[in-house]
User: What shape does this take?
Amino acid sequence: MRNEGETLRRVVVCPPGREYVTYDDPRVHNIAEPADLSRAQEQHHRLRETLRLYGADVITVPELPGHPNSVFTRDPLVMTPEGFVKLRMGLPTRRGEETWLAEHLASLGVPEVGRIEPPGTLEGGDVILAGRVAFIGHSSRSNAEGVKQMAEILQRMGYETRIAAVAPRYLHIGGAMSMIAPERVLACSGTFPGDFFKGFDVVEVNSGDFVSGNVICLRPNEVIAEAAQQMVIDRLQAAKVVVHVLDLSEFVKGSGGPTCLILPIERGNWTSGKR
Assistant: This one.
């Protein structure tokens, strides 16, 4: 996978079960509000069905015991054109998810091509691949050493790396921006340096909450957005983007948005006429 604005072909998800709602202290897991498990399961089912409807091969993995955040498969790894990079989670209670998900990808025949080593931390929500460019966020979860290591890995693959500090309201850079086509970006206004998106068409939205810039690109100019983000939905539709609206509120309670729930492992050009 080289560009997150291309058609989604294959993706790894982790349907929520008891682990998602089983914990002593939600604060140590960065859970803002307890989720309703039955609603979360129904919402995740609809997400999987939507991904399949639009052509993605959806691979499900079971939750990691003791890890309520394992439902957010975006964060433990970064998928590149050459294989996956095993990360080192910035939230201590998520450590271990990297090995868990790496083992699943290895079982699918996906090679490991790098890893983030201590004292570096970096989470997958802070890396967005865009063809010739890789956008990397320096956030509360991804420290300077982790960002440096990730940049070096991607530069060896031919990427130009662009690094930006992530505003405190966003957990990751992926809360403030998403690819919506190979050379088109959804981005929260006033959040990034002026030349950060040089060479890209930018659809700007006002900086709202922590997932305002977070959508799943199904294929160029066609996305999944969270139902509460009406301002974003309206702006995308005005920019001629097809928007599929899903209620993912039970995962917003866990501090996640749409892209947090998927690990894309294959994208490519859409050639079929099937919808």
About this structure: Residues 270-275 have pLDDT under 50 and may be disordered. The chain has one domain: 7-268. The chain is about 20% helix and 25% strand.
